[in-house]
Design a protein that fits this description.
Elements (H helix, E strand, L loop, with lengths): L5 H9 L4 H9 L5 E2 H8 L3 H13 L3 E6 L2 E6 L2 H23 L13
Antiparallel strand pairs: 1-3, 2-3
């Protein structure tokens, strides 16, 4: 199996590197939802949520489908669900270290150039 280019892999991982995007992923982890449903659940604004959805879609993490006037968002496949589950397990093991790490506070998510 060929290992993906590290730059592309890092770009993919940026989809998971921002609080609102993680909240969106949790919101659609078990069922697809419309933008309005996600906005209501996160108590965010539609423009901001839409930008994050575009980032997640661009990173290949989520997919969308249109039904009438509504667009439904869901995780790409069961592998993404498994990845989120593994991230939760690993995070529970390292939460203290992450909270104490000041180096990561400088990083920015989904930076576009």
């Amino acid at each position: 199996m060929i290992t993906p280019n590290c730059d592309v892999k890092a770009k993919f991982m940026r989809g998971f590197s921002e609080k609102t995007r993680l909240q969106i992923l949790d919101a659609i982890r078990h069922e697809e939802k419309t933008v309005s449903q996600i906005v209501d659940e996160l108590k965010g604004n539609q423009s901001n949520i839409s930008q994050h959805l575009a980032c997640l879609k661009g990173c290949g993490i989520i997919v969308s489908r249109q039904e009438g006037k509504f667009i439904y968002y869901s995780l790409r496949n069961h592998h993404i669900i498994e990845l989120l589950n593994v991230l939760d397990v690993v995070f529970n093991e390292v939460e203290r270290e992450v909270a104490a790490c000041e180096k990561n506070d400088e990083l920015d998510g989904c930076t576009r150039k």
